[in-house]
């Protein structure tokens, strides 16, 4: 939403500039001062090679970013995957005016960590990394089954009268560290009879789920006859070339006569 608001504001500014210039069109020289559109704010990011991790050997690490490691004034919240979240929670800091930062928190150098970066008018960005023995850090890619969340593995449509349609949806939340694009050929039913994938929720090629967001796969149960209980399977598959993910959602309904 923040991005939409920025674009809308810039368009209004451009319109005012255009109207102002139209009144000067009778002259041969147009004064363009004040009509430039301000650049959009830079989204938060993190430069791995500018970040180091040090351990005191007693369960405390210090994670530091050099100048330019992230954008100035970004909020950074760190979480250690190897510790109990309920006991330790998140540890937060902010980057300085030069993009540097430093934070100390419970952990060891080779643990796996998550940092959530946020900045005004921007969606948060989540990055996962682990420390190395030499004090550097490297990206960590979570198994897809740990970061792609399916809202339900069973959809019960209940009683559906023959000749009618009942709609339900599966939510897929992307908790991974980058965009997930699921091809339309990787979303299919074990048997197309009596159930329909609502393709308007997919687009022409499938669904793209930005990091931290949720998209839907819509489904209709549409029985032709009152044949009793019907059970089918929705298969959702995804691969990023390294990891493979497959979820099977059971679709159940009871087809009843009109």
Question: Which helices and strands appear, and what pairs or packs with what?
Answer:
Layout: H1 2-22, E1 51-55, E2 60-65, E3 75-80, H2 85-88, E4 91-94, E5 101-106, E6 112-118, E7 125-131, E8 137-139, H3 144-147, E9 148-150, E10 154-161, E11 166-174, E12 180-183, E13 187-189, E14 195-198, E15 206-209, E16 214-221, E17 228-239, E18 244-256
Folded structure, characterized:
The protein is mostly beta strands and 258 residues long. The chain contains three helices and 18 strands. The protein is elongated and about 70 Å long. The two termini are 45 Å apart. The model is unreliable at 1-43 (pLDDT under 50).
Keyphrases for this structure?
elongated; mainly beta; disordered N terminus; 4-stranded antiparallel β-sheet; 5-stranded antiparallel β-sheet; 258 residues; 11% helix; 18 strands
Q: How would you sum up this structure in a few lines?
A:
By secondary structure, the chain is mainly beta. The protein has helices at 2-22, 85-88, 144-147; strands at 51-55, 60-65, 75-80, 91-94, 101-106, 112-118, 125-131, 137-139, 148-150, 154-161, 166-174, 180-183, 187-189, 195-198, 206-209, 214-221, 228-239, 244-256.
Q: How many beta strands in the DSSP annotation?
A: 18
Number of helices: 3
Question: Helicity level, as a percent range?
Answer: 10-25%
Round the mean pLDDT to the nearest integer and report it: 79
- Uncertain spans, ≥5 residues at pLDDT below 50? 1-43
What kind of sheet is the major sheet? 5 strands, antiparallel
Write out the strand line-up for the largest beta sheet, numbering strands in chain order.
4-3-6-7-8
The radius of gyration over CA amounts to 25 Å
Order of helices and strands: HEEEHEEEEEHEEEEEEEEEE
The secondary-structure class comes to mainly beta
How much beta, percentage-wise?
A: 35-45%
Q: Report the principal-axis shape.
A: elongated
Q: How far apart are the termini? A: 45 Å
């Amino acid at each position: 939403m923040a991005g939409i608001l920025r674009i809308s504001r810039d368009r209004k500014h451009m319109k005012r500039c255009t109207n102002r210039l139209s009144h000067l069109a009778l002259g041969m020289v147009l004064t363009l001062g004040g009509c430039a559109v301000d650049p959009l704010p830079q989204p938060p990011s993190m430069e791995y090679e500018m970040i180091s991790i040090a351990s005191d050997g007693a369960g405390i690490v210090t994670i530091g970013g050099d100048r330019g490691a992230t954008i100035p004034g970004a909020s950074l919240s760190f979480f250690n995957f190897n510790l109990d979240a309920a006991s330790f929670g998140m540890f937060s800091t902010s980057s300085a005016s030069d993009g540097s930062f430093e934070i100390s928190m419970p952990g060891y150098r080779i643990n796996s960590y998550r940092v959530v970066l946020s900045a005004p008018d921007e969606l948060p960005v989540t990055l996962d990394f682990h420390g190395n023995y030499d004090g550097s850090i490297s990206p960590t890619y979570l198994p897809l089954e740990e970061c792609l969340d399916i809202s339900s593995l069973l959809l019960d449509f209940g009683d559906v009268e023959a000749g009618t349609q009942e709609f339900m949806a599966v939510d897929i939340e992307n908790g991974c560290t980058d965009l997930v694009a699921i091809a339309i050929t990787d979303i299919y039913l074990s048997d197309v009879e009596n159930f329909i994938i609502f393709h308007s929720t997919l687009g022409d090629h499938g669904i793209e789920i930005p990091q931290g967001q949720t998209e839907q796969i819509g489904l209709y149960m549409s029985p032709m006859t009152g044949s009793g209980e019907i059970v089918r399977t929705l298969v959702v598959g995804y691969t990023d070339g390294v990891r493979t993910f497959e979820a099977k959602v059971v679709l159940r309904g009871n087809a009843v006569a009109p």
